[in-house]
Automatic annotation (TrEMBL):
This is Peptidase A1 domain-containing protein. One of its GO terms (molecular function) is DNA binding. Residues 1-24 form the signal peptide. Transmembrane segments: none annotated. The active site is at residues 168, 366. Keywords: Aspartyl protease, DNA-binding, Hydrolase, Protease, Signal. It comes from Saponaria officinalis.
Length: 486
């Protein structure tokens, strides 16, 4: 009945300019397909999912592209959840734990930059982490699951050998595990061997690339690198150049990458990481790319999408300005001004999303963070606006960092309030219901996929980005969102 009334008000207001009924704008609702979401959670732990994923992996053929393009795969594609988690709820808690480590890492990096510090001021020298005796040690398996959720298939060396690499817009240095290993975690592909590539070339300490590293050292004239992450993980090794290939779409020579001999607690399954940040050492900067884009498929799906460089901006995209932080060039800050729920603007001071003169605050878009984090006041306002319109739905106990959850176990679909993000310039992005209400188990518990942070910096995570091509126009400093464009 309420839905019929809402439709009537929309119809009535279209043809009447004086009716008092139009003064009370009806709330907007969207449909969440509960059955489909729960089917995906169950499929992850089925043999059919594993067989399908393996077949996709074996049969994948890159299509010829005018731009540089590689495929994107989900974590489940490489690292089967059934092997390390007893059920979907355990998988959810593992994902959220990784996500918290990721968020702490980004916030720490931002805070250090604002204070004018780098990790080198807090870390031990590289030489203490990588010694000659370490290089003779055997390969060992890592125990941490890391924070990588999406991987691309990239070729390294000449002739090229293919590796699964985490895509990361929150860091700059591209690296992969490298023989001889002092300490290497388990990965899907064979570990990279420098002698197998005719284009492998160590960088000297006097090279521009070496001087651009946050943490570096010299050994026998060669440049050593170290990259540390907020959860205590790190990678250490030789800083070199080699050829990087993007399937049949092309290759680029003399790309500076880390050849990691000591890699602690990082991304099990992947060979390393593609740094897609805005700094001078990032892959995008080294490719001199004018743009790049990615589309992140549902993490519970075995489907794939693409990571593209120098492609055209999708028509009909929602756009927002990319903002510059003079203290930190790695992150992609975006002009977010607020949210609406049910089609009504949420009362949140825009200042909560702005960056101050010191470089604090602001909003970044990150491929590696799952759950969008908002300052406490902003999160509380958004959550309260949502719960006011969902009082008729059966609530469920909180799960980990989620304090707003629902029991949809008896439903195949449900109407929920719409949620939209509003950007500087006046455009808005309406989120699909599955991008803000996500299953946390296989029995019908769904949670509101936002969380609070004590930091002044907000992070738009990949759950909200799923199914949307996110386009970074680096030349015009514009970010674009194109839904259903994977």
């Amino acid at each position: 009945m309420a839905e019929i009334r809402n439709r009537f008000l929309v119809f009535f207001c279209t043809f009447s300019l004086v009716s008092t009924a139009c003064l009370s704008k009806p709330y907007r609702f969207s449909s969440l397909n509960v059955s489909s979401s729960l089917h995906s959670t169950l499929s992850l732990f089925s043999s059919q999912f594993q067989i399908y994923s393996q077949q996709q992996q074996l049969n994948t053929i890159e299509d010829q592209q005018d731009t540089l393009s590689v495929q994107i795969h989900t974590r489940a594609y490489l690292h089967a959840p059934v092997k390390s988690h007893k059920d979907y709820k355990a998988l959810t808690k593992s994902r959220l734990a990784r996500d918290t480590s990721r968020v702490n890492s980004l916030i720490s990096k931002a805070e250090l930059a604002v204070r004018g510090l780098t990790h080198s001021a807090l870390s031990n020298p590289v030489e203490t982490l990588l010694s000659e005796s370490d290089l003779a040690a055997p390969v060992t398996s890592g125990t941490s699951q890391g924070s990588g959720e999406y991987f691309s298939r990239v070729g390294v060396g000449y002739p090229a050998k293919q590796y699964y690499m985490v895509i990361d817009t929150g860091s700059d240095v591209t690296w992969l595990q490298c023989e001889p290993c002092s300490d290497c975690y388990q990965q899907t592909d064979p570990i990279y061997t420098p002698s197998s590539s005719s284009t492998y070339s160590p960088l000297t300490c006097s090279s521009q690339q070496c001087s651009s590293l946050e943490v570096s050292a010299c050994r026998n004239g060669g440049c050593l690198y170290q990259v540390s992450y907020g959860d205590g993980s790190y990678t250490v090794g030789d800083f070199v150049t080699d050829t990087v290939s993007f399937g049949p779409s092309g290759s680029v020579s003399k790309v500076a990458i880390g050849c990691g001999h000591d890699n602690e607690g990082l991304f099990v399954g992947a060979a390393g990481l593609l740094g897609l940040g805005g700094g001078p050492l990032s892959l995008t900067s080294q490719l001199k790319a004018t743009s790049f884009s990615y589309c992140l498929v549902d993490r519970d799906s075995a489907r794939t999408s693409t990571l593209e460089f120098n492609s055209a901006i999708p028509s009909g995209s929602v756009t927002a300005p990319i903002l510059k932080n003079n203290k930190l060039n790695t992150f992609y800050y975006i002009g977010l001004t607020g949210f609406s729920v049910g089609g009504q603007q949420v009362s949140i001071p825009p200042s909560l999303f702005s960056m101050d003169d010191s470089g604090s605050g602001g909003v970044i878009v990150d491929s590696g963070t799952a759950i969008t984090r908002l300052p406490t006041q902003a999160y509380n306002s958004l959550r309260d606006a949502f719960t006011r319109l969902t009082q008729h739905l059966k609530s469920a106990p909180s799960v980990a960092l989620f304090d707003t959850c629902y029991d949809f176990s008896s439903m195949s679909s449900v109407k929920v309030p719409t949620v939209a993000m509003h950007f500087a310039g006046g455009q808005s992005l309406n989120l699909p219901a599955k991008n803000y209400l996500i299953p946390v188990d296989s029995s019908g518990t769904f949670c509101f996929a936002f969380a609070e942070t004590a930091s002044s910096m907000s992070i738009i995570g990949n759950v909200q980005q799923q199914g949307t091509r996110v386009y970074f126009d680096l030349g015009r400093s514009v970010m674009a969102f194109s839904q259903n464009n994977c």
